[in-house]
């Protein structure tokens, strides 16, 4: 029912109001939820509009296009509210379109910033594409909601697979920032750091799972390739000293955690986060100072053949 939003009385289950979006030709594959700020509801529609509704009566306040459904983009994500920003993402692999994130003004719906998942020429990661044609059709969709760190004012987002999905011959290279975790400044949309989980993905692995934040400046994120990644949110020493670590290869000082796929993942995550905090002294860092863009580094990771 992606064309509908309901408000229900939490005490009785009684319907308070029902908003029905007009018939459209968007991809009706699902809807992952709404966001709320003050008295306003925000939702993405199948034909890729961001709609603002009055939370009291469900009346539409405005709608703004965030992608072109005629290019077979689809929009199913629950927007992320961060202060005066409404963060929206897009999906769609059919026509090999580029992915992106946008920030919208919560009062007007006007765009505040736009960030492409494929770097522009000269930006970090642009060298990981063979040419502009491959980069401009490289995919990297943003269809799952990310996470926000209020101390650093960074949003962390998982990026989808490159395109063409299973055919990589026309896009030689690692294809950044597809299949990556990225951190963006929420006020500017500028890339602060990124980490690619699956370079040159040809298995539709994605990296779109929502990162889980922990106290102490850490987060954990699982991926379709069967790996968990643990990362320091600041990435001050990017790629070094265990700052990015696959939990399947967990640093386990007392040797009590099994990593053969049969261990308790909750225990594994908590134990490895604690170990990393003790080993690297992350708690002593000033987490309010965003890292410099100069520390942006890509750590290659090669995967065994099937």
CATH fold label of the largest domain: Methanol Dehydrogenase, Chain A
Cα-to-Cα separation, first versus last residue: 39 Å
Helix content: under 10%
Q: Main β-sheet, in a few words?
A: 4 strands, antiparallel
- Total domains: 2
In the sheet with the most strands, the strands line up as 3-4-5-6
> What would you say the CATH architecture of the largest domain is?
8 Propeller
Mean pLDDT: 76
CATH class of the largest domain: Mainly Beta
Low-confidence stretches: 234-306
Name the CATH superfamily assignment of the largest domain.
Quinoprotein alcohol dehydrogenase-like superfamily
Classify the beta-strand content into a percent band. Answer: 25-35%
Radius of gyration: 20 Å
Q: State the order of secondary-structure elements, H for helix, E for strand.
A: EEEEEEEEEEHEEEEEEEEH
Indicate the overall shape: globular
Classification by helices and strands: mainly beta
> What's the β-strand tally?
18
Number of helices: 2
List the SSEs and their pairings:
Elements: E1 4-8, E2 15-20, E3 35-37, E4 40-44, E5 49-54, E6 60-65, E7 80-82, E8 85-89, E9 100-104, E10 111-116, H1 132-136, E11 147-149, E12 154-158, E13 180-185, E14 191-196, E15 212-214, E16 218-222, E17 228-232, E18 244-246, H2 265-280
Antiparallel strand pairs: 1-2, 3-4, 4-5, 5-6, 7-8, 8-9, 9-10, 11-12, 12-13, 13-14, 15-16, 16-17, 17-18
């Amino acid at each position: 029912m992606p064309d509908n939003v309901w408000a229900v009385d939490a005490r009785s289950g009684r319907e308070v109001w029902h908003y029905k979006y007009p018939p459209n030709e968007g991809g009706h594959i699902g809807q992952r939820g709404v966001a709320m700020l003050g008295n306003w509801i925000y939702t993405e529609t199948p034909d890729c509009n961001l709609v603002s509704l009055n939370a009291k009566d469900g009346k539409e306040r405005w709608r703004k296009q965030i992608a072109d459904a005629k290019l077979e983009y689809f929009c199913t994500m629950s927007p992320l509210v961060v202060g005066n920003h409404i963060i929206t993402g897009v999906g769609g692999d059919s026509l090999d379109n580029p992915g992106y994130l946008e920030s919208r003004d919560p009062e007007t719906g006007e765009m505040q910033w736009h960030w492409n998942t494929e770097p522009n020429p000269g930006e970090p990661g642009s060298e990981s594409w063979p040419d502009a044609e491959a980069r401009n059709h490289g995919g990297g969709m943003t269809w799952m909601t990310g996470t926000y760190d209020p101390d650093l004012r960074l949003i962390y987002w998982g990026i989808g697979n490159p395109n063409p999905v299973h055919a990589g011959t026309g896009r030689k290279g690692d294809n950044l920032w597809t299949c990556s975790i990225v951190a963006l400044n929420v006020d500017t949309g500028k890339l602060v750091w990124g980490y690619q989980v699956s370079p040159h993905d040809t298995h539709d692995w994605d990296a779109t799972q929502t990162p889980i934040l922990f106290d102490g400046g850490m987060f954990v994120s699982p991926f379709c390739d069967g790996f968990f990644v643990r990362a320091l949110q600041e990435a001050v020493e990017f790629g070094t000293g265990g700052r990015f670590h696959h939990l399947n290869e967990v640093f386990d000082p007392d040797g009590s955690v099994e990593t053969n796929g049969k261990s308790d993942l909750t225990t594994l995550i908590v134990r490895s986060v604690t170990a990393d905090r003790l080993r690297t002294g992350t708690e002593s860092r000033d987490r309010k100072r965003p890292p410099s863009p100069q520390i942006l580094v890509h750590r290659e990771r090669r995967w065994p053949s099937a």
